[in-house]
Amino acid sequence: LQKRKKKMASSALSRLSNLHNHLNPTDPLSKGLVKLSPEVSEALTRGHAIVALESTIISHGMPFPKNLETAKEVEAIVRENGAVAATIAILDGIPCVGLSTEELERLAKLGSKAQKTARRDIAHVVAMRANGATTVSATMFFASMVGIPVFVTGGIGGVHRHGEHTMDISSDLTELGKTPVAVISAGVKSILDIPRTLEYLETQGVCVAAYKTHEFPAFFTESSGCKVPCRVDSPDDYANMKLKLGSGVLIAVPIPKEHTASGSLIESAIQSALKEARDKNVVGNAETPFLLARVNELTGGMSLASILDIALVKNNALVGAKISVALAQLRQ
Ligand code: PSU
Ligand code: MN
């Protein structure tokens, strides 16, 4: 047993040291350790439009089989709009960019048995040959490594409420500061601290843009009360403003008009839950689970919020695919 343990440890170590080289972005061999789907590999060679997609939303966002169904529908929207879909996850310790139907199904069935993998978790998941569902930070990291400049998700992580005391700030924000990928999302959920999230993005040097509006959206509603410094009115607008700054861009797409009524319902449930949390003095890491559970109860079992979650990811996929096509055309 001792021998086996030693062997396992040394193989984990060698995988870690491989990964270490691989995390060095100047290493041209880094692509060798990432598995590309044939479709993604061909699109990269030909300079075709590709949209990266995260996988925490599949593993931790919804139960099976709704998660698989949604993942397939989002990929289909990307394809219908002229881009190749590259869902990113770590399977048996191998970072995969672009999943086959079987791999997507495997991840969806694993659900939360797959480890939620942010940037800090990549090394461990790879070394342990484990299965990891990538968050925004880890997905951006791999997308950038293989050369995919556009990434679509639902909502990104941010500064938690009371983050100025707890320092609970999602690594999505620091990743945006250093990885040149455009992230298309519906903004940040108001269970987080949106003004401080925007302050932090400013500190990180992230260009924050809103799509066809001047206001940063609050995911379920089109307004957060915060203005953005940059407005993008078309996919070409974005394609033209891309500079080699070396940092990321956040493009926030407001909730489509047809969903704003149910969006407002959820938003008022969030506001009541926030008030309850204040009254009951629920703080620290107990706050987010409390809020999510309360919003669930107040909106009748999460059904409405999850329907909207899905609608927003799909809308973002549509915008992201168009941006990625505009960018690819500019490169041709
Ligand atoms: N916000 C959402 N939906 C999500 C997430 C955030 O509205 O699915 C997920 C994303 O994968 C995001 C991650 O990158 O949670 C952020 O987690 P944390 O706050 O632990 O950094
Ligand atoms: Mn956190």
UniProtKB/TrEMBL annotation:
Keywords: Glycosidase, Hydrolase, Lyase, Manganese, Metal-binding. InterPro entries: Indigdn_synthA-like, PsuG. Transmembrane segments: none annotated. It holds the Pfam family Indigoidine_A. This is Pseudouridine-5'-phosphate glycosidase.
